Amino acid sequence: MILGISGSPRKMATEYILGEALKMLEEKGFQTEQFSVRGKSISPCKHCDFCLKNARCVIKDDMHQLYPLIQEARGFVIATPVYNGSMSAQTKMVIDRTRASLAADPKVLRQKPGMAIAIGGDRMGGQELALQQIHSFYILNGMIPVSGGFFGANLGVTIWSKDTLEDAKKDEEGLRSLGKTVRRFAEALQWLEKVDSKEK
Ligand SMILES: Cc1cc2nc3c(=O)[nH]c(=O)nc-3n(C[C@H](O)[C@H](O)[C@H](O)COP(=O)(O)O)c2cc1C
Question: Cys-Cys link to 62, which of 3, 25, 40, 87 (CB 3.0-4.6 A)?
Fold first, then answer.
């Protein structure tokens, strides 16, 4: 299963574009799940280190809906709105709280491909930095960060929403980055499947 996570508190462009990415992956034969922070109660990590000793998070909130999905996922698509030039606080909270997943199984994310989506109201409002923040999370945890490729280069999906869903849907260049990145991501997943089947 490929897990898509939306770090937007609204049912707007971030959820929509993530949904499109997952739809494209389904069309390529992958099973997907979409999780959104919208309407959920998720607190920041408090660095109590309970998870390091007990392999689970002590904070009782909606993050516990996500933990089993993280365990099951073999690839990740993290989508964030751009807030003040970087990822949203909601996205960062989810990322920090994966510490409990890693405490339970340090290899839970290892060698799993990850792609990133960043949606900004402005054309150059910080989408690339937000993508790099997500990629840093992937790199730090031994994952395989996937870009849209070198010709017509992009680091992932960048959308210019002009603060509306309608304009996000009309961002041709952004949608091109979506198609390219999903293609590369699917290739990475298929390549890993082959490696896994040879090792078995
Ligand atoms: C607190 C806040 C800060 C924002 N800062 C930026 C910004 O720095 N750059 C940008 O391009 N858009 C910024 N925006 C606009 C959002 O990125 C944009 O409206 C985006 O489409 C929101 O995602 P959503 O459609 O999923 O809600 C900001 C929005 C909010 C609420």
Answer: 40
